[in-house]
Structures are given as structure tokens and as C-alpha cells.
Amino acid sequence: xxxxSTRPNTADDKMIAAIERGDQSEFQDSRPPKVKDNTLIKxxxxxxxxxxxxxxxxKALRLAAEKEKKAK
Length: 72
Prior knowledge:
The protein has 72 residues and is mainly α. It contains two helices and no strands. It is rod-shaped, with a radius of gyration of 29 Å. The termini are far apart.
């Protein structure tokens, strides 16, 4: 058996092969690339960082209040 190197294995190769065969129908890639929504990712990271900062500040306040209570 051959290695299969003559078969088109990328979307571009498949589209070119379809054009050469005379297929004029619209080409559909079976696995289109994923589109990343960078604004959503950035906003989620910013929200997570904001939450972590608030948590750290509240923890520091709680620890300070406990130290003050022990000092009295």
C-alpha cells in the first residue's frame, strides 16, 4: 500500500482538487478553524483578576481586625 501522499489532506488541497474535477459547488471544510473571541477572553481574565484582588484585600482586612482584637 502507498503512503497516501497523493490524496489531498488539507482544506486547500481538497478545494483545489474539487476545482480541477470541475466541481463548482461551494466548498465546505469539514473542520473549520475555531474563531477566538479575544475580547471575551480578556474580559474574563480581567474579571478574575479583579475578584482575586478583592479577595486579597478582604483577607488583609480580616487579619488586621483579628490582630487588633487579640491586642485588646
